[in-house]
Specification:
98 residues, alpha+beta, 1 helix, 5 strands, 26% strand, elongated
Length: 98
């Protein structure tokens, strides 16, 4: 097996797009998902690590941009809050048009 393109099948989550084997040590056990464009300059993606020996898991987290990381619960709450704000804006627009 060519290790530079290997996937760690016993620890890799189904959403992972990382090309494992390119890094040495714990960096090779970080799993990162496909980017989702939120704006033209900001992407979000899933990220987590699994220690292959201990099988301990850190994450998954939702990474937004280069600085912000959210637990799944925090990301769900953020998404719900954004939808609620957008709904309020749509409601206000409907009332203004009536």
């Amino acid at each position: 097996m060519n290790r530079s393109y290997a996937v760690l099948p016993d620890t890799c989550p189904p959403w992972c797009t990382t090309r494992h084997g390119l890094h040495v040590g714990e960096e090779d056990h970080v799993h990162v998902g496909r980017p989702l464009a939120l704006t033209s300059e900001v992407v979000a993606r899933l990220c987590m690590s699994i220690d292959p020996e201990r099988r301990t898991q850190d994450g998954p987290y939702v990474l937004v941009g280069s600085d912000d990381g959210y637990t799944l619960e925090e990301a769900n709450a953020l998404g719900a809050a954004l939808i609620a704000i957008a709904d309020l804006g749509q409601e206000a627009t409907r009332h203004a048009e009536a």
